[in-house]
Specification:
By secondary structure, the protein is α/β, with parallel strands linked by helices. Helices cover about 25% and strands about 35% of the residues. A hairpin with a 4-residue loop joins β8 and β9. α3 crosses α4. The structure holds S-adenosylmethionine. The site of S-adenosylmethionine has 18 residues, from α4. Pfam families: Methyltransf_25 (PF13649).
């Protein structure tokens, strides 16, 4: 299974895979951070928007939202969920917008899909170019130096008479600018079990390196990876929320 297979052939299962994610709380937290750090504007773009759950919440909160993704089947589901929004098929490493934006978001560690430092830099440059002065670029990230290859997240979900088990975990060799997201999906019905295993190539970066890439263009604020409490990063955790205000 390739990256495209999960987000194309299996796009119909994506929302089931994410059923435990609290999209409302995540979106509320970023709206709040945008109120605190942003410029009062309401134009918003979600990078790697997938099936559009965050776009839905931002529209409901009063934003004029749009979404971008590299896989059309994900965008087709997003367009059904958010008929008022504009969605475009683009690579977040080099994206263009038709007018300056007040807020750009990238949830669920998707910024790591820029699968090397050069593409990550290009994404940061594109975001800076697309934002108004004082606009905010939010994303969440994992520090390559804190990845524990033994940790996996597992959850199960039922749809009709089928049971799904999803596993996902980071893998980093300890060297270089590539890490991967290892995923497995098991679909069990009364007569058969199907298993898909996949490894997605992603950029590996330390928070120190990431901050150095951002600071020429943005004032960078880092928070603990907890959308309910929003507390400053403790300089230790390997997962964090980045709120970057365009200079
Ligand atoms: C883990 S999903 C996250 C989707 C959504 N943000 C969410 O929180 O549910 C990652 C998304 O990134 C998209 N993606 C992967 N590489 C991309 C790229 N280079 N540019 C834009 N989207 C990309 C995939 O198609 C997929 O929809």
């Amino acid at each position: 299974m390739s990256v495209n297979a999960l987000y194309t052939d299996l796009s119909g299962y994506y929302d089931l895979m994410c059923v435990d994610i609290d999209y409302q709380t995540q979106s509320n937290a970023i709206c709040r951070l945008h109120q605190l750090f942003g410029n009062d504007g309401t134009t918003h773009l979600d990078l790697a928007c997938g099936t559009g759950p965050h776009v839905r919440h931002f529209i409901d909160a009063g934003y004029i939202s749009s979404g971008l993704d590299i896989n059309q089947p994900m965008l087709d589901i997003a367009a059904t969920r958010c008929p008022e929004a504009h969605f475009s098929l683009q690579d977040m490493s080099h994206f263009e917008v038709s007018e300056p934006l007040d807020l750009i978001t990238c949830f669920l560690y998707s910024i790591h899909y820029t699968d090397g430092i050069e593409k990550l830099k290009a994404c940061i440059t594109s975001a800076r170019r697309a934002l108004t002065t004082g606009g905010v670029f939010y994303f969440n990230a994992v520090d390559k130096e804190k990845i524990d290859n033994g940790l996996f997240v597992k959850h199960t979900a039922k749809q009709a008479d089928e049971e799904f088990t999803f596993h996902s975990g980071w893998h980093y060799s300890g060297q270089g600018e590539k890490q991967s997201l290892r995923l497995s999906i098991e679909k069990a019905s009364t007569d058969a079990t199907q298993i898909w295993n996949d490894e997605h190539p992603m950029v590996a970066v330390s928070f120190m390196e990431l901050t150095a890439l951002l600071t020429p263009y943005f004032e960078v604020h880092v928070f603990e990876h907890n959308y309910e409490t929003i507390t400053p990063w403790d300089n230790v955790s390997g997962n964090a929320i980045f709120v970057c205000v365009k200079r």
